[in-house]
């Protein structure tokens, strides 16, 4: 299992990706944090912009499929997408994810 992160400045894109992930059965739930501050250096000057963060739990083996789907559908504006491993997970939550997402 992994925690999937998708970041985009475009709120409509995040909503569309949420719908896609749920309808394709790649995930069972999605959490969205709107208008998060992102700090970065731009030409040596501290800058800030707003990004929207979608997070969800999925199967590690689905990542390539999800990444390919998003790269194809949003080829003109590919959001950031990455995962981090889940080391431990409540058994009931893990079983619900196994039962309710695409079979691999």
Question: Would you give an account of this structure?
Answer:
It is a single chain. The chain has 104 residues and is α+β, with helices and mostly antiparallel strands. Helix content is 33%, strand content 38%. The chain is built from 3 helices and 4 strands. The chain has a 4-stranded antiparallel β-sheet, with helices on one face. The radius of gyration is 15 Å and the shape is globular. The chain starts with a strand and ends with a helix. 15% of the residues are buried. The model has no long low-confidence stretch (mean pLDDT 95).
What structural class should be given to the helix and strand makeup?
Answer: alpha+beta
Q: Round the mean pLDDT to the nearest integer and report it.
A: 95
Query: Span from first to last CA?
Result: 13 Å
Side by side, the strands of the main sheet go 2-3-1-4
Total strands: 4
- Reading the helices and strands in chain order gives EHEEHEH
What Rg do the Cα atoms give? 15 Å
Binned strand content: 35-45%
The percentage helix is 25-40%
Q: Ranges with pLDDT <50 over ≥5 residues?
A: none
Query: How many strands, which pairing sense, and closed or not: the largest β-sheet?
Result: 4 strands, antiparallel
């Amino acid at each position: 299992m992994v925690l999937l992160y998708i970041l985009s400045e475009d709120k409509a894109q995040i909503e569309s990706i949420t719908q896609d992930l749920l309808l394709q059965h790649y995930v069972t739930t999605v959490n969205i944090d709107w208008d998060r501050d992102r700090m970065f250096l731009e030409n040596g000057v501290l800058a800030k912009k707003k990004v929207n963060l979608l997070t969800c739990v999925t199967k590690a083996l689905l990542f390539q499929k999800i990444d390919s789907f998003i790269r194809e559908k949003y080829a003109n504006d590919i959001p950031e997408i990455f995962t981090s491993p889940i080391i431990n997970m409540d058994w009931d939550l893990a079983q619900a994810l196994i039962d309710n997402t695409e079979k691999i």
